[in-house]
Structure formats: C-alpha cells, structure tokens
Write a structure and sequence with these properties.
By secondary structure, this protein is α/β, with parallel strands linked by helices. It has 3 domains: 113 residues, 3-Layer(aba) Sandwich (Rossmann fold), CATH 3.40.50; 178 residues, Rossmann fold (3-Layer(aba) Sandwich); 207 residues, D-3-phosphoglycerate dehydrogenase, domain 3 (60s Ribosomal Protein L30, Chain: A), CATH 3.30.1330. The protein is built from 17 helices and 22 strands. The strands form 4 sheets. It has a 7-stranded parallel β-sheet with strand order 8-7-6-9-10-11-12, with helices on both faces. A hairpin with a 5-residue loop joins strand 16 and strand 17. Helix 5 crosses helix 7 and helix 14 packs across helix 15. It starts with a strand and ends in an 11-residue tail after the last strand.
C-alpha cells in the first residue's frame, strides 16, 4: 500500500505533484492547518504531514497521529512543531534549510543597505513632498567591517556577498574551522573581538538556549560606537529592550530587523525609533524560495517514506538515498543484533557498547547506533523506532559508547554489540554477506554462522552428545519445522550454543518441554523483523 501524506498548508501544485509522481498518495487540504479540530479528526490516517507555519503540531495532535512517520516543514523554522514530543512518538521532523538560503541572505544584505543609507525614512519623507537631502546622511559599506555571527549556510552566503562589496568580514562561529574560514576569505574571531571590531553586525544562528540573547545588553555595550545591527535570523537573539536603549543613547547608529521576540509583532521596543528598519519576517518571502522549499520538502518526505533516506532531519541522523541503499542491510543487521540482546536481557541495562570494524566503520555510525538501540528497546516497548530509541535510552540513563577500528578479522566488516547490566555483559556480532543478508557470526564469544529468520530458537548447554537429537525430536514431534540449524562451542565438553531458524513461532508448551529435559541451561524463543525497510514505525 502506498504511503499517504496530508498537505495541510499552502504548497505549490508542482510540489504536490512531486508526491504523486513518486507514488505517494496525497491529500492537498491547504486550509486544514487552521482548523485544529478537523485536523485532529483526520490525522490518524496519514503517514506524512507537510506543513508551513500555519499548522501547529502539538502534543495533542501527535497523540492522535497514530500512523505518522514524518513531518516535513517547508522552511527552516519549526517553532510550530513540538519536536521533543514528535521524537518520543518516533516521528521524524524535517525542515528545508537550503531552499530559502539565498533569499534570506539577500534580505540581510538589503537590510544592511537600507539601514546604512536610511532608505525607508528617506522614501517616506520624499513621498510626503519633502526634500531633506541633508537629513539623511548615510555611510558606505565599502571597506567597513562586517561581523557575521553564525557562518552556516546562510551566513556563508552573506559573507560571500559582503566580500563582493569589498567589506572586511570577521565571523564568530564555534563550529567554523580556521581552514574553512580561510577558504571563505573571512577572519575567524571570538564573539568579544567581533563586537569590538564590527561596523555592522548580522546574525545567522538558530534560536537555542545558548544563542538566546546572544546580543544582550552587556554584549551590546561591548560593540563599537556607531555600530548597525541586522537580524534576519530569529527573534530572541537580540535583547530588543536593551537595543532600543542603545539606539536612543546613540551608541548604536541603526538597526534592521526582520524577526522579533513575539510574532506577529504588533508592538516592539524598536518600533518608531529613527533609523530602525523593520519588515514582517520577509526573509524567505520570494516566489523562488517558496517554490524551492515546497519542492524540497516533497522530495525529502517521499524519499523517506519510499526508501528510508533521511535528509535535513532535526531529530535523527541524516541518511542519503545512496547511503540507504548501501547501508540498508547493515541497518537491518544493527536492528537484529539489538533485538537479540533486548530479548535476552531482562534486567535493567546500564550501557550499550557498539564496535564497528572494517567497511562498516566507514558508514554512518550515528544511524547504525539508532538502529541498534531501537532493536534493544523494542523488546520492552514495541512502539520504539530509530527516532525515539535514543531518547528512551537517555531517559533510562543508558550510556552509549562506540568504537571504530580497521579491519581486524576474516570479514571485510562486522558489528559487535555488547549490553552491560549489573549482573553480566552480553555480546553478539554480525556481518552482511555478499548476498546482502545479515548473519550472526558470534554469540557469547562463540563463533557461528547463523542466517536470521523471523522465528528463531536459541539454546545454551554443556557440550555433550544428544543435544541435536533432542532438539530435532521435540520440535519434530510438535510439527515445528527447522529451516536452518547452527551450532557452536568454545571447546570440547565446554559451553555450547545452538540457534535455530524455524518456519513458525515455537509454542510455549514446546519451550517448556525442552526445558524439562534438563539438557539445556537456556531455551529462548526469539523473533526478528524481517523486511527491506528500516524506516517508520512497525
């Protein structure tokens, strides 16, 4: 059955057609996002929800979205989505950070010109029939220093445009390397140095606990007298009250704001101040940007629902379509390794250690970690998936550790998963053969080669004669057919294991009969999700 997507805000018809062309069923109801009750009534039937800013994805809505796997926001900001709650529900939240990058960067440059030359006030004055040439004395951008706070995608474009205007550019970004700064042609500085040097300051960071009021009253006091401040990123990055006071005192010569602490902004300390340019969050408001983000969100959501590729997700590691095709069997193996440990472990888990060796060590380990953790956590909570599993593990205080090493064994690549509790450590390793099928290759340090099936039986025992016969006889007498049978042992007469791939689940009565023979230390039926997909909810 084709996945089904609801578009509850206005998107272009071209973007809606992308879903149809990709084989995704889509309902285009652009006014539904404004009708909370109706949206609540229908959301349960959809696998995906495509939105802009009108639809509010609340905890209440998510509780009713029983089939929802992905939310796609056509734009950058996800203030209208309860991302933590979506993560707990196992729903991926995607945005489109690049579709409006040029548009937003151009708006910042335009705002910088506007405040440098007092264009809005000069325009208003001239419209009123005045001719106040002497009143509107501006400054050049040429040879001025621009301080860019945040050198990500949009910030980088702003840097490039500013250099084209022959400005000097200094950038503050904790994640900007010296090499990257050099390649951009900018100087990497700390925030205090930027504040002291910049003639213009422009912000291009998301609003987080760390960036909120990054330009506080104290920070503004450190700026060069006569600085002009531009914010086309997010409201709340600048203390508007402190900035208003600095404008009134003359310390700050001008400001240009497209975003505000409270939106829609019907009032602000910055309103009605001289040389303050304000616009109603127009950063992404071009026909090109609106089309770009709509097309991008449709492609991303279709890719995820159809292939498992994850792009621009806020609550899960990205997996490209190319990675998904190569990693698919390894993601499935990670889930199987986790499922084995999860079903075998009954006491609280303290730590999960994952070893990647050889070819798999060069893959997307974040995504593989999520798959392994999901496999473990599903044993206790079947609704857990790759999105919610790391959150569940964190809430339980489980420590996650990963190790990457070069090829150290007979396989080109393998994964080893170890679960630590107060009582024991349990480990299992696996690989993917050339046929694309995952295999278990080691359990409890005992080497094996076990094909993985939906229904399996795992036993441990002392290495003595008669084990194979007992298993075959009891299962055969109860009409349980064995598809594959793998044995392993540490040495003659010591610990031994058997893992059987069966055609159907083992009845509990058969498990009890095997235990009653007294020949086994453990008899444990296991089940594994067998299929091609790794995305979405089970």
């Amino acid at each position: 059955m084709a996945p089904k997507v609801l578009v509850s805000d206005k998107l272009s018809e071209t973007a809606v057609q992308v879903f149809r062309d990709r084989g995704v069923e889509v309902d285009y109801l652009p006014d539904l996002g404004k009708d909370k009750d109706q949206l609540l009534a229908v959301i349960g039937q959809y696998d995906g929800l495509a939105i802009r800013s009108a639809t509010k994805v609340t905890a209440k809505l998510l509780a009713s979205a029983t089939n929802l796997k992905v939310i796609g926001r056509a734009g950058i900001g996800v203030d209208n989505v309860d991302v933590p709650e979506a993560s707990k529900k196992g729903v991926i939240v995607m945005n489109t950070p690049f579709g409006n990058s040029v548009t937003t960067a151009e708006h910042a440059i335009a705002m910088m010109f506007a405040v440098a030359r007092q264009l809005p006030e000069a325009s208003t004055s001239t419209h009123e029939g005045k001719w106040e040439k002497n009143r509107f004395m501006g400054v050049e951008l040429f040879n001025k220093t621009l301080g860019v706070i945040g050198a990500g995608n949009i910030g980088t474009i702003v840097c490039n445009r500013a250099l084209g205007l022959q400005m000097k550019v200094v950038a503050y970004d904790p994640f900007l390397s010296e090499e990257r700064a050099k390649s951009l042609g900018v100087t990497k500085v700390e925030l205090d140095e930027l504040l002291a040097r910049a003639d213009f300051i422009t912000l291009h960071v998301p609003l987080t606990d760390k960036t909120r009021n990054i330009l506080s009253g104290a920070a503004i006091a450190k700026t060069k007298k006569g600085v002009r401040i531009i914010n086309c990123a997010r409201g709340g990055l600048v203390d508007e009250h402190a900035l208003a006071e600095a404008l009134k005192s003359g310390h700050v010569a001008g400001a240009a704001f497209d975003v505000f602490e409270v939106e829609p902004a019907t009032d602000s300390p910055l309103f009605h101040l001289p040389n303050v340019v304000v616009t109603p969050h127009l950063g992404a408001a071009t026909t090109e940007a609106q089309e770009n983000v709509a097309l991008q969100v449709a492609e991303q959501m279709a890719d995820y629902l159809l292939t498992g590729a994850v792009q621009n997700a806020l609550n899960m590691p990205s997996v490209t379509a190319e990675e998904a095709s190569v990693m698919g069997p390894w993601l499935k193996l990670a889930q199987h390794l986790g499922a084995f440990c999860g079903q075998m472990t009954e006491e609280p888990i303290k730590a999960i250690n994952i070893l990647y060796d050889g070819t798999v060590s060069q893959m997307n380990m974040e995504a593989l970690n999520c798959a392994a953790i999901a496999g473990i956590m599903k044993a206790a909570n079947p609704d857990v998936n790759m999105v919610s599993a790391p959150i569940v593990a964190k809430e339980r205080g489980v420590k996650i550790a990963t190790t990457r090493q070069e090829k150290a064994g007979v396989f080109d690549g393998y994964m080893k998963l170890t679960v630590v509790t107060d009582r024991r450590e349990r480990s299992i390793a696996g690989t993917v053969f050339s046929d694309g099928k995952p295999r278990f290759i080691q359990i409890k340090g005992i080497n094996i080669d076990a094909e993985i099936g939906e229904h399996m039986l795992y036993t441990t025992n002392e290495d003595v004669p008669g084990i194979i016969g007992t298993l075959g006889t009891v299962l055969g007498d109860n009409d349980v057919n064995i598809a594959n049978f793998t044995l392993g042992r540490t040495s003659i007469g010591s610990d031994a294991i058997a893992i059987l791939y069966l055609d159907e689940p083992v009845p509990q009565s058969v498990v009890q009969e095997l235990r009653a023979t007294g020949k086994f230390r453990q008899v444990r039926p296991l089940s594994f999700e067998i299929g091609n997909g790794v995305s979405g909810k089970s």
